[in-house]
Design brief:
Two copies of one chain form a homodimer. Helix content of chain A is 55%, strand content 10%. Chain A has helices at 19-27, 31-43, 47-53, 56-72, 90-100, 105-125, 128-140, 281-290, 294-318, 339-371, 377-408, 420-427, 437-453, 460-464, 466-469, 473-477, 482-491, 499-502, 508-535, 540-546, 548-573, 578-597, 599-604, 610-627, 631-636, 648-651; strands at 145-148, 164-168, 173-177, 185-188, 197-206, 209-219, 221-222, 225-226, 230-234, 247-257, 267-268, 274-275. In chain A, the strands form three sheets. In chain A, strands 1, 2, 3, 4, 5, 6, 9 and 10 form an eight-stranded mixed sheet that branches. In chain A, α11 (377-408) packs antiparallel against α13 (437-453). The radius of gyration of chain A is 26 Å and the shape is globular. Chains A and B meet through α10, α11, α12, α20 and α21 of A and α10, α11, α12, α20 and α21 of B.
Chain lengths: 652, 652
């Protein structure tokens, strides 16, 4: 099919892709661990059938068994110190988790609960005594545990948890209590069946004084039965993830020794004196929470992995299935030769590549922060914001991709045997767990508002303490000048105010300037709106809730800019050749289809003329036609093991 | 929360809604049958739990039992003639089906298969002998049957089915054969277990000559076992709809008597002479298919019903659940007080009301066409196009609404006990069955291209024969003048070319003019593109596939215009008062949020200035704030029985 617009003077040469070479680019430094996971996935590929065939109980046992067997290969312990039997490589642990998302997602999520959440909390919130006591057994999976944070009445607001941990100086014990049903621990993975220990987040009370949320190691079961004072209920059937035993937990005066407090950031002396190296309670709380950031990085990577599986199946189906004949011989076209089908799938492939590049960046930052020499507060904050934002965009992307791909595979996509049923049901909750996406984007935006003000004044307190609590932004915004902000926005355009009207659409600098302009403009606009509300003496909460759609839009724009920058950087780092040429096409397709999707905003804000907006849509069509013949290579390069594609009716 | 824009001179008075009165408006002339279904749903509400608790086999039996019991109340037989035990009211049968969609969707789909597809085929394609033989028993559910159209290799392209029906004049029998696995009947409801008879669509061959696809009544089972020559396989577990026994069927020389041909539109004499009152084979085929249009009308209505359930749960949750405290007292706000949450849910409520109004129109047309005195070909064509288009928009709406509502209910929305798991898994296939949505929209667009040309010339042949086959549009387009079309577009603006720049955003005539302009402009643009391609001597199929995204966009614009007109008309017909005022707000919210969603297009085509585009977004926000206090009444008015809401953790 010839491109409609044949006016371009340079002849386009279709890139030749060496799939193995492209896989090597994508796998990067973690090729070895990723291949180990691929092998493990292939070895245990029968779990995808077992999810359908086994009873709920038997499937849970099977998933546990697989998790333990995979642990024995070293796959799941990469993030723990070598001295306890781990791999000592945080980045590799994330890469392994991303790859594990190609397979059954109950196995993935149980792995995340056990090694990421439970193990991560012991590692990052505990000290040597906790590490020595628990890490060796939990790394092998012999000791299964829970991360008991969320409560029925408190999902996103961890600071308001209701569970109590009162220090009894007489017995040198903490007494853990669930005061009411709103404070029961809820949706807790590993709770309904396998968890023996739990890291329980509770309000610490010492000598009658509340000290905020802290974490405690609390026994849940002994010999398979709940210990006295612990009541556990199965959370029941879920939309998916049937292999994960989620449950609810109530504590009725459960006593644990003083040493059960995970005391890296705060401790209680035997006599009942509270001590912490961090004076400010908010700051302490967010420092503790911040160490758990790898959960969000993991889920972001898992979302990207899920999207790869769905797109691999749908792409292979689309080059196999023939649309019905139209009487003139063109009916021999396969689905992917149709313009609409290209539009449905190819920009999603491009966006998946872009998110992959962004995930590489976040994983790298995580690795540095957790493996680097010192404690760089700025780097931690940047990582937390990036992880939150990417988690939101990547998991929404996964949900959208799975739905589009299911529909693109027609009725066969609805049969359970063809992978989509499980993929859809299992991954649906990604948008909610490890932080609801809308709440996460609000955190991102609040961080931006606060950071941004810091360029005008010293913001040490606000920057660190109120960074996440955020709603005190009005004090910041009051002092910033909207005028200055808009000047700064203009400076973003490398060739002056009119430059972007003439720059080539395929110039990455043009594309990035568009993303940057949008973000800065939204940030300035939001700051102005909040300031206006505050000036009118309206309560901050009401002001914030009224501009909430602008808040979310800003955060999306911010994260999308980071994604675009990561992808552009990534492409530039690849040596010239077929792989780079293909990635370059994808980068253009990602950037222009993202700009196209928001072209109304760009027109409304003077950054896009009507003519140029239409030219972008034509360019996206043209890019789709260029990516079309590369599509199968591009999905193959992700390296989803064929054993886990499991779509016999769709791709054989 | 005061509206941000307080410049409006007229004081806004919040409407008072009488919920029962609004329900009466919505239920319309079918209040009695809808209430019967509501009662039945409440009686059998335990099926929602049983879907989780029973084994697959037991649940299928339970669903069958409920379908039969509901049939005994007269609910499911409304569409059949009274002389056979039916209710003789086609419109009522659709209204009943729409209401049934509030409950378990396996019950809904099995009802649709049995009474709509199987029963409908017997009724509309058969003659008295078939009616007398089968209708009485199938109306009670005593005789269960299948609608065996779809084949593995032929989903949307029914004319290319592979199953053969050869007439053997010697024995006066048809011999039904499945030539290969691509021609096996697939995804057939009632096949795996309960179906005793099937209406089988097959290529009729008489005296060595192929006569195209016809329908035959073929026995599948006797005494619960497949009859000789029939092989049946269970389609296996699906994403949802576990209570429907979908299966695959192969025929190996199965002999049925000559009378098994459903002979309303064609017959074979005992001697083997083919006869039909409709000479043209394409026309005959589409006339036969056209009688089955009620399936699409039913699914559209079911999609709207599903959206109502999801929105009812999410809205009630959103006025109950409190967001976390923000330290200034505003934390007492419930979720629905947040701007973003309003933006997420309220335009979806408005669109659901709009689709309800459009469904009323299509149901009314269906009723007229099938109950009216004569055979009005034009009315039939209009109905078929509307049914196809509304089915696509309504089912996509359902998928989107269920997803948004699930996420808006957080982690609890993921638990199976809270209805969303089933709602999502069961309704997912709506976008695919009874015609893939993208394929349906292509049919709609082809109809528009053809119809549109008919204003310039006599189009009797094309209008009827090529209406659906469509791809011969080039012959039409060649003769039309793009220039004339654009003039016609201008005439759509009631106050001249500039009128819409000044008209009030809340003027329904302005809103409708925008929808009409978009549709006509897209139609003219598409015609031009196709003509250009044809002029360049490129094959029609390639041209069409390249403009496929424009085709889909046109069809969407067309259907959305019809929806807007239906809603505006509907509001105008309601007497002044609180209900009308509320509907009027919803109508504005629907229209403006639809225009907002496509504002890039309107700006690109000179119909919206930047200022006006921004004004529309502000107006949508303002409308959301006005609808907010009415939200619970608005969802209550849909009358989803509380027994089927089944979301104990979300709404108690």
């Amino acid at each position: 099919m010839a491109p409609e617009n044949t006016s371009a003077p340079t002849r386009y040469v279709r890139p030749e892709i060496d799939v193995a070479a492209l896989t090597a680019v994508l796998d990067g430094e973690y090729a070895v661990i990723r291949d180990l996971v691929r092998d493990n996935l292939t070895t245990y590929a029968s779990v995808l059938d077992e999810a359908d065939e086994l009873t709920a109980d038997a499937f849970r046992e099977r998933v546990r068994e697989i998790v333990v067997k995979m642990a024995a290969t070293g796959q799941t312990g990469m993030g723990f110190p070598a001295e306890y039997g781990g791999g000592g490589d945080v980045g590799a642990s994330i890469a392994a988790f991303e790859t594990l998302a190609f397979g059954d997602l109950s196995v993935l999520v149980k792995t995340g609960v056990q090694f990421g959440l439970f193990g991560g909390a012991i590692l990052h919130l505990g000290t040597r005594r906790h590490h020595e006591a628990h890490l060796p057994a939990l790394i092998t999976g012999e000791l299964m545990g829970c991360f008991a944070m969320t409560e029925t009445g408190h999902g996103s607001n961890v600071q308001a948890l209701g569970t109590l941990a009162r220090y009894d100086a007489a017995s040198r014990e903490f007494v853990i209590t669930t005061p009411d049903d709103q404070a029961r621990k809820d949706y807790i993975g590993n709770a309904a069946r396998h968890g023996e220990l739990a890291v329980v987040f509770a309000q610490l009370e010492v000598d009658g004084r509340s000290r905020g949320v802290h974490a405690f190691v609390v026994p849940l079961r002994a010999g398979g039965e709940p210990v006295p004072g612990v009541r556990i209920e199965d959370a029941g059937r879920k939309m998916g993830l049937g292999g994960v035993d989620n449950g609810r937990i109530w504590f009725d005066g459960v006593r644990v020794p003083r040493e059960a407090l995970l005391n890296r950031f705060a401790d209680v002396t035997p006599e009942g004196v509270y001590e912490s190296p961090i004076d400010d309670p908010d700051r302490r709380f967010f420092t503790m929470l911040g160490t758990l950031v790898q959960g969000r990085v993991s889920v972001a990577g898992a979302g990207i992995g899920v999207a790869k599986v769905a797109l691999t199946v749908a792409t292979k189906y689309a080059v196999r299935r023939r649309q019905f004949g139209d009487g003139d011989g063109s009916g021999e076209q396969v689905l992917l030769d149709y313009g609409m089908h290209q539009r449905r799938l190819l920009p999603l492939i491009a966006r998946t590549y872009a998110l992959h590049a962004a995930q590489d960046v976040v994983r790298g930052q995580l690795h540095e922060v957790f493996s680097g020499p010192g404690d760089d507060a700025r780097a931690r904050r940047r990582l937390e914001a990036r992880a939150a934002g990417l988690k939101a965009l990547a998991t929404w992307h996964a949900t959208r991709v799975v739905q589009e791909c299911r529909e693109a595979c027609g009725g066969a996509g609805y049969l359970a045997v063809n992978r989509f049923a499980a993929l859809k049901a299992d991954s649906d909750v990604f948008t909610t767990f490890e932080g609801d996406n809308h709440v996460l984007l609000q955190l991102v935006a609040k961080g931006l508002l606060t950071d941004h003000a810091s360029e005008f004044e010293d913001l040490d307190q606000l920057g660190t303490v109120r960074y996440v609590t955020g709603l005190a932004v009005e004090t910041v915004i009051e002092r910033t000048s909207a005028h200055k902000l808009l000047e700064r926005v203009r400076d973003l355009l490398p060739g002056g105010d009119d430059w972007d009207r003439e720059a080539g659409l395929l110039d990455p600098e043009y594309q990035l300037a568009m993303f940057r302009f949008r973000e800065e403009h939204m940030l300035a606009g939001l700051a102005r709106r909040i300031k206006r509300g505050i000036d009118q003496k309206r309560p901050a909460g009401a002001v914030f809730s009224q501009v909430q759609d602008h808040v979310i839009a800003l955060a999306r724009a911010h994260v999308e800019r980071l994604v675009a920058e990561a992808f552009v950087d990534r492409v530039r780092a690849v040596p010239q050749g077929g792989e780079r040429a293909a990635l370059s096409l994808l980068c253009d397709l990602f950037a222009l289809s993202a700009i196209e999707a928001d072209r109304a905003w760009f027109m409304e804000h003077g950054r896009l003329t009507v003519q140029r907006s239409k030219a972008i849509s034509r360019e996206v069509n043209d890019l789709c036609r260029k990516v079309r013949p590369l599509a199968v290579d591009l999905v193959d390069a992700w390296g989803v093991p064929s054993a886990v594609l499991r779509a016999p009716d769709l791709i054989g």
